[in-house]
Amino acid sequence: MTNSIGEIRDADVLFVIGSNTSEAHPIIAMEMKRAVKRGATLIVADPRAVWMTTIAEKHLQLKPGTDVWLLNAMAHVIIEEGLTDDAFIAENTEGFDAVRERVKSYTPEEAEKVTGIAADDIRFAARKYATTEKAGIYYTLGITEHTHGTDNVYALANLVLMTGHLGKPSSGMNPLRGQNNVQGANDAGATPVFYPGYQHVTDPEAQAKYEAAWGVELSPEPGLDLNVMMKEVGKSIFGLFVMGEDILLSEPNVKKLEEGMNRCEFLVLQDAFMNETARFADVIFPASVFAEKEGVFTNSERRVQRIRKAVEPPGQARADWEILTSLANACGADWSYSGADEIYDEIAKHAPSFAGISHARIDSEVHRGKTGIQWPCPTPEHPGTVYLHENGVMRGKGLFSAVDYRPSNELPDEEYGLFLSTGRTLYHYNCATQTRRESGLDEKQPENFIEIHPRDAKKRGISTDDRVEVSTRRGAVEVRAIVSRQVRPGCTWMPLHFAESRANLLTNDAGDAVTNTAEYKVCAAEVKRIAAKDSETPRFPGTYYSVTGPN
Amino acid sequence: MIQETQIRINGEKHSFRPGETILDVAGRAGVEIPTLCHDPRLKPAGACRTCLVEVEGQRKLLPACATPATTDMAVVSESERVDRHRKTLLALYATDHPSNREASERGAPDELLDMIENYRAPTDWGAMASVRANRHDDRNPYIHFEPDTCILCARCTRYCDEVEAVSAITLAGRGSETTISTVDGLSLLDTSCEMCGGCIDVCPTGAMGEKMPLTRGDKPERELEKVRSTCNFCGVGCQVDLNVDREADDGAGRIVKVTSPPTGTTTNDGNLCVKGRFAYDFVHHPDRLKVPLVRGADGEFYETSWEDALQKAAAGLQGVSERHGKNGLGFVSSSRCTVEENYLVQKLSRAVFGTNNVHQCAAT
After folding, report:
1. 3-class DSSP state of B322
2. For B330, which residue in chain A has the nearest alpha carbon?
3. Across A164-168, A178-182, B240-244, least confident range
């Protein structure tokens, strides 16, 4: 996020796209609700009528995967009606002319044909966003989990730059991070192209710095990203170390991955629970959960916050950092860390963005009434950074990127006639190794389901609670049907959490052109009725709202 | 420019901004005014009457929480009259409220009992049985309601309406039978409730409480140690207080419940969601891995020592590296683990095995 969570309540326009905020980020949703109660205008763009649409001024219910059309059409309106911030564009950006040319053909009327959103609604959103000072964009994986995810992000960034909604409170470009420490894992260098603090592995200076720090030679060759790595398992990758993830539940098109895993020669797993991936493991280390160790997580707003040891790990389980240290030493290294604080100091020493941060500071300081320190924080005296780009765009000039619409990799056809999108629900969390062990959550939402529009359900003779088979070119699973107007006609939606009916047997592993992030949000599927309602079914298998509204 | 004006509280001048209440100014100035129905996240209700103060020129006492500060207003928060009012009010509250802490504090601390003690309110005005109805058959797993300790301050129903905005609970019934209920008295499971537990967080008396610790017969909150940490679910980074029974599980400690830090001190502003507040049982789940495992020649897993597991893991990874080259290995790190642990995984991959094939799990 360029801006902070606490700024949301003061925003006047919230443009939320590809985010089921009240289920995936409930506390950020509370801030949005507060802003709306205060009088802010909420505009939600999403193929599903998610809960936030109930308090939105406008719901732009676009067809899945047509985001670039919507966003380019908004840019078209902003330029055509002279609503751009020309001073900001001149001073802080480059490449605007290319975007101006590119979006000329993206008229709201044409966009209406592709996206299914009324042209006037696109105009409304564009005007409202462009003419309001405190207007922020909020998005999550509904934007990024596409083969054109990077294009979607560029198209959003174009809107931010042409209206100058950057470097100011309650505005900006705000991806809401999905997991507790996605931000921190990237910050720490757990990526194939960056050392800690986003220092590129191909940069000779960065390489030299870390060679000196670690006392070894390092490779300047970028590694494989996760999507490619998974496709290479059994082809060029023959050994895996996996910490705290169930790749056989969460990766797309897992059937293909399973085939590769059969040719994998050695797998080390480090986790708190047995999981699907364990079937292929050679060694399993019993690890700790957050309440059993010291360390930091970095949240969506770049706030570095502490976790603290509250209880002892069970049996012989150890903190992950201790296990990693022992493993490195068993492999011939000579690491000696007395605690997580010392590891953090090593990170801070070589990464300027975090140089001023330490456990001791986080433990003792309060900034602007809140605990935790927001990076960039270059010195021990620096109070942290609430919103980015305050003193001009950080890279010097904000770069416009002209993008064109590209259809999703796999679209519905005669054989597989429906769109399938996947995502998270309020009551479970990703692989659900934790939440499905909670009796309460399991009672609220015990099994997988698929939302299907009444029109499509009728055509297939499906009623709510029927057992149905959902199939794609990659696999099939059995789930319960919920006939719901929450999804568009022609679209279905399914959560990813359930190991016994894995949504990722269905999903498409085609990746984004730049990041290789897989297209979890769009693939072609078919739904077939198997059997009638069984008797013992809970009242609201989805969320209350998916059953009751919007009808 | 923000217009600055002044108000006098107990003779001292304090500046205020337009829109601030007497209570807001007093809070900033460190003047203590007791409240029960007030919460900074909610619109003032003026319902509990504990914050009444004297205002010069006003015949009646006024609620500090709902009275906007105005220029040259003179407020007295401590006087014989205010004290008499507080004692009377608290004594009335006490008549249908459990008087001993064992009964009223099985879960969270009871602020009303604290207040009765602090202001030395009489507790001998006779006792009435509370007649508030309960929903005994509510099969929801997380939220318990104890009508006897409820004082109808409506913080819970207002939170449900104003902050979580699902309006699952409401004040129902009339007169002395008024209670907190749902539509048709349904279980929370069958309503729009999203189990955020905000009703528990805002309740001043513990009438709304966590059901699971009560069912398990865990120690009351006063006897637990709070450990401040960060929620391990989504990317908001809510701060949580893990309430630990230090002596449980032979001294290993057990998380009895999770509470939210005070409003206004952290990113989550005192709020949590269903997972943050209630999903901590996995920590102590019997399915946890407790011993290192290695796969035997017969394909089964066997328990082993740490030393053996570490050596087998090292030999296995090194073997792949020798047979297939450095880039024959891949390291999958975890966005569920700490920054420090992610740092060590990439250091292991890069510095020990010489490959940049390392990525955190949220990347696809």
Report:
1. helix
2. A240
3. A178-182
Is residue B99 helix, strand or coil? coil
Q: Chain A within 8 Å of B331 (Cβ-Cβ)?
A: yes
Whole-number percent of chain B with pLDDT over 90: 83
A232 has which bridge partners? none
Q: Return the pLDDT at B11.
A: 93
pLDDT single digits (tens) A1-57 = 999 999 999 999 999 999 999 999 999 999 999 999 999 999 999 999 999 999 999
Cis peptide before B292 (omega within 30 of 0): no
Stretches where chain B sits below pLDDT 70 are 1-4, 363-364
The single-letter code of the amino acid at B238 is C
Q: In this predicted structure, what is the pLDDT of residue A428?
A: 87
Residue where a domain terminates, one of B24, B57, B78: B78
pLDDT confidence band for A551 (50 / 70 / 90): very low
Is B364 close to A27, i.e. CB distance below 8 A?
no
| Helix, strand, or coil (residue A359) | helix
Q: Which of residues 204-233 of A touch B (CB under 8 A)?
A: 210, 214, 216-219, 221-227, 229-230, 232-233
Closest residue in chain A to residue B318, using alpha carbons only? A331
- Residue-level pLDDT at B3: 56
Minimum Cα–Cα distance from A145: chain B residue: B364
Helix axis angle for A119-131 and A67-80, nearest 10°, is 60
pLDDT band at A546 (very low <50, low <70, confident <90, very high): low
Tell whether B106 and B67 lie within a shared domain. no
Number of domains in chain B: 4
- The complex's ipTM works out to 0.92
Integer Cα distance of A85 and A90 in angstroms: 9
Rounded to whole angstroms, the Cα distance separating A380 from A378 reads 7
User: Over 50: is that where the pLDDT of A444 sits?
Assistant: yes
pLDDT in tens, B267-326: 999 999 999 999 998 999 999 999 999 999 999 999 999 999 999 999 999 999 999 999
Query: Which strands form B301-303's sheet, in the order they lie side by side?
Result: B301-303, B293-295, A283-286, A266-271, A239-243, B329-333, B358-360
- What are the domain boundaries of chain A? 5-176, 182-374, 418-548
Residue among A219, A286, A346 whose CB faces B292 most closely: A286
Write out the CATH class of domain A182-374.
alpha beta
* Rounded to 5°, angle at Cα A157 from A156 and A161: 125
At B302 the three-state DSSP class reads strand
Q: What angle in degrees, to the nearest 10, is found between the helix axes of A67-80 and A108-115? A: 170
pLDDT digits (tens, 9 = 90+) for A250-275: 777 888 889 999 999 999 999 999 98
Contact B210, B281 (CB under 8 A): no
Cβ-defined contact of B236 to A320 (cutoff 8 Å):
no
Helix (H, G, I), strand (E, B), or coil: what is residue B360? strand
What top-level class would CATH report for the domain A5-176? alpha beta
Rounded-to-integer distance, Cα A44 and Cα A27, Å:
17
Q: How far apart are CA A117 and CA A159, in angstroms?
A: 18
Show residues of chain B in contact with A312, CB under 8 Å: 249, 251-253
Domain that holds residue B274: 224-284
CATH number at A418-548? 2.40.40.20
B43-56 burial code (b ≥16 CB/10 A, e <16)? ebbbbbbbbbbbbe
- pLDDT, mean over chain A: 92
Give the model's pLDDT for residue A537: 57
Positions of E strands within B142-271: 143-145, 170-172, 179-181, 208-210, 225-230, 239-245, 254-259
**Tens digits of per-residue pLDDT, B19-30?**
999 999 999 999
Question: What token pair was written down for A135?
Answer: 């207007």
Q: Tell me the count of A-B CB pairs closer than 8 A.
A: 489
